[in-house]
Design goal:
It is a single chain. This protein is of the alpha/beta class. Strands 10, 11, 12, 13, 14, 15, 16 and 17 form an 8-stranded mixed β-sheet that branches. The longest helix is centred in the N-terminal third of the chain and has 17 residues. The chain is elongated, with a radius of gyration of 26 Å.
Length: 517
Amino acid sequence: MGIEEKITELNKLREQSAAGGGAKRIEAQHNRGKLTARERIEVLFDPGSFEELEPFALHQCTDFGMEEQKFPGDAVVTGYGKINGRHTFVFSQDFTVFGGSVSKIAAEKICKVYDLAAKNGAPIIGLLDSGGARIQEGADSVVGEGDIFMRNTICSGVIPQISVIMGPCAGGAVFSPAITDFIFMVKGTGQMYCTGPEVIKSVTGEEVGLEELGGATTHATKSGNCHFIANNEQQCLEAVRRLLSFLPQNNMEEPPFIDNGDDTNRMDEELLYIVPDDPAKIYDVKKVIIRIVDNGDFMEVHENFAPNLTVGFARLGGQSIGIVAHQPSHYAGAVDVDASDKGARFIRFCDCFNIPLITFIDTPGYMPGTEQEYKGIGRHGAKLLYAYAEATVPKISVTTRKSYGAFVAMSCKNLGGDISYAWPTAEIAVMGPDGAVNIIFKDAIGKSENPEQTRQKLVADYKNKFANPYIAAGKGYLDDVIDPRSTRPKLIKALEILRNKVDTKPAKKHGNIPLPS
């Protein structure tokens, strides 16, 4: 056979690989509102940049007639290319081939592309659409999933790992995306669960549908497993591209600097009026954030979970930053179990990948009540302060209004905060005036002729003492009290001076963060 015939054979095999499970199965995939594995890659990567790896790999299973059913490349497409001009690796499960199930060879392909990503210090993205382990292969398939989990863990904090749930992700397969840094899900088609509805019904008697059990909305609002949800696959993949624009390639690099033309010295009059004078009134902290960051571009993470704490990515003066902010429009910004987990996880990611942290503080403290105590608010709340204390990236805080109780857990100087600002509206104390007076002056109020009048006077005295930032500033707990309009230029200058910050911790294998939930 001459070279021309060999090239013809090569092209024929390549066409077979690109065809996946065949035209009928591709049509069925489209009828479900889903793209194929390769179509998703085309949307995700820069045009013409993707290079596929192992398109001719075949499974070696000979049981249950499997030797007669072989598709070049098997049930996953792997390779690399560029996103926003930067190298990125990917594996995309092909539901048209054995329902995207994980075979021994598919797992090996995923592990190989993971190893390449780690060696080259580039992000890896998993596009998940699979029925789980391939039953026909028995233990081989299960062991393959274990190999994937190992790589998820080894690469954690080394390269960004993103999971995109675009179809089913069931059984043991859910643990792989759970280890990765961010999970995206598509409404209506993306589903994730350890045990399906029928198993649940047989064991517990509960009846639940697939979407209610493991759909995008469920995981985005209730479990907190999902960080981003999208209405369709195109929107979802565009959001992945956007997220990567904020992130470095690996833990040894700085995040990309993007000069977006927003004036670094820009003042904003509107910041004088967003926070109400009355400390009992609510406002949306996101209105503060978008007026400060570059071009109002804020990519919120976990938007629908624990909304009393807002976290996400933005830029200041072209530099990527992570933002953590209490949200007074939900539970007055009080910190509960879920908010603690959400904040701690985000802070630790930013610290892994050299992304400075900006914290906006306005909270009455930790959420009170037996429900929170029984859920372990002490343990969960400790995760938040642990994450701040552990982080060595630049940490800057701005107290906009109330800072009661939880102040010590929110990037304060005692936890290694570098620069702490406050607006003139800030109130920094152990707790609010009413609660403090009721405790400190309980006996005096009870013995007075007019208890309520006495209480109100004592509350007024407490407010005069603590309902401003100057006591804290006078003791060095704050670096400056600033005009709200100047917040943007102040933060940018602080980031510039902290750019070469070096902060080392004692040598150790790893800390023991209070993990149980």
